[in-house]
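Q: Here's a chain of 382 amino acids. Please give me its 3D structure as tokens.
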Amino acid sequence: MRRYPVAAVILALAMLAAGCGRGATPEELGETTAVPTELRQAAPSKQETLSCSAQYIRTPGDLGDRTSPQVTVIRSRFALEAYYEAHQEQYFLEGRESVASDTTVGFWDACRRYDDAFFQDHELILAVLEEPSGSIRHRVTALTQEGADRMLTVTRLIPECGTADMAQWHLIVETERTKGGEVLITLSDAPCSGIACLQTSYAAAQVPLPQGWNGTVSLEEPLIRLWPEGQEGDVPERSMELRFWRPQFGVCGTGLTERQVTLANGVDARLGYYDGSPVWYFALFQGLAGSYAALNCGLTEEEASQALSILKNALLAPGFLTEAEAVRLARQVCTLEFDRIDARFRWEDRTWTVDFLGLTPGGDETVLLDNWGEVLQVTYGE
């Protein structure tokens, strides 16, 4: 495990801000961080776990003589646009017409959702990492606070075999707004046998394979099938299938009990058990763009426990708006009072429909958004 302390300095974008027609405060410009070689000895203090979520965007470029990782704290839409203008020649920060084969959207596509309303009570931590192989992936596993400073913990998923190309990544971490302080980064390495990547126009997933497990990907289903090694035959008898279900996942309710869990990747899931069995049969993920669920296909209790640990490190629907994000953006244009919200993702055209159900007849409002959070249509009806 490597711990990188960072000394905060004000992002040098004053000339850019002046070109926008006005001066900018340090809060608007954000704070960028450098990486000194010495370790900082922090005084013991109470540690608090902060909620966060992350996007992982591959941004080809060159750090030059700067050291990886680099960190910038963004506290306004103006600062985000200033960051883009200052670094667009250093990294590829443009949008992409479709989700790339490495399961990332373009940087600016990922940033469209962060408007002025978002920054009223949230901020972004941008972490730039350079890797010796494009096969290496990342997971933000924790964000904690000690005093005024915060610690961002990032796990590097390193497969046994990887490409020999250099890769630069922007990790976009959403968190609650703070009053400042330094951001420190801890990097830890997690070797794995490989990373199974599923990518279609409407579904995406990355699943790191631990030692002792194999996997295949089918784009027709679409699904990722994982199984423990040591089984005879071409088709494993015991496996787990992670699927994108069209139109949606459904099961029989007879003898079913369910347990709600939050996985390490921050995604909520419902675990289903049948007839008192201690082994879960399905894991239905919630709040994502589309219906993702995993099925236990004959795994033993120990193997099922290992499979659940694998799912905790899975990255589901990268590059797609979550339900919570779609609702937040739709609420900004809703003009009616409502007492219930219904949101659903249409996989055929990658759009979100958010219904605001009113208190009185004729008080319903429906907002249609594209996958980048742009409002396409607002309709009213009974």
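Q: Can you summarize the key feature?
A: Residues 152 and 185 are 5 Å apart (CA to CA).
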